Amino acid sequence: MRNIKRVIEEHITRNIRTYFILIIIFLLGLIIGLIVVNNSSEGQETEIANYINNFITELKNGAKLDYFKLLKNSFGNNLFLVIILWFMSSTVIGIPIVYGIIGYKGFCMGYTISAVVMTLGTGKGIAFSLTSMLIHNIILIPCMLAVAVSGINLYKSIIKDRRKENIKIEIIRHTIFCLIMLAVMAIGALIETYISSNLLVGVVNYL
Fold first, then answer.
1. CB burial class (10 A; 0-12, 13-18, 19+) of residue 86?
2. Closest to 129 in 3D by CA, of 111, 143, 106, 103
3. Could you read off the pLDDT of 82-136 as tens digits, one per residue?
4. How many domains does the chain fold into?
5. Whole-angstrom Cα distance, residue 174 to residue 180?
6. Number of Cα atoms under 13 Å in the Cβ half of residue 174
């Protein structure tokens, strides 16, 4: 455990500037998501509210959760995200897209939180958002950022040293790192499926 902690600390220290930039981009995306919902038209607000209220009504009426489907969708989304980040970071022109993906993920989270709060009110909306999004995203977001950082480092290595053998080694390292992060994200998918979803069901009964 100490060795793992030391490796993580060294990794963050070496890449603190890149992490800082990515976190800023993620937060900017989140803020834009909040703003977009708050500036939606009346028709869009009604559509958003109907979707959320229908979802809550189904849960209150005892709709059973399909855990296999939830797990498949969660892990599938994580797998797709890692593959896209891996592929884009392996190309010279793909790095701007890596930044764009991080910003987009922040936007989606901000949009979802704002939509829920707009529909349910501040107190209930925050409770809904925390139970449905917080726990698993504590794992998923850092993993996503770590994969992006690894990809950016790969890009920098390719630019600095264009020797095929060295590029091959760096791609292998990046691939192994992505697979490790994907394994950790699988734990996040399990938490989202079996913990976050059940917490949400419990909270919904009090909304």
1. buried
2. 111
3. 999 998 887 767 889 999 999 999 999 999 999 999 888 888 888 888 888 888 9
4. 1
5. 10
6. 27
- The letter for the amino acid at 7 is V
- How far is the CA of 87 from the CAs of 81, 111, 194, in angstroms? 10, 27, 30
Tokens of 196: 């976050």
**132 within a domain of the structure (yes/no):** yes
- pTM for the full model? 0.89
Residue 174 lies in a domain: yes
User: What's the pLDDT tens digit per position in 136-182?
Assistant: 999 999 999 999 999 999 888 878 766 767 778 888 999 999 999 99
138 in a structural domain: yes
Paired tokens of 73: 């969708």
Encoded tokens for 107: 């936007």
Range of the domain at 134: 2-26+65-104+122-204
From residue 88, how far is each of 11, 84, 146, 187, 195 by CA, in Å?
Answer: 21, 6, 15, 24, 32
Cα–Cα distance for residue pair 141/184, rounded to 1 Å? 11
User: Is the residue at 34 inside a domain?
Assistant: no
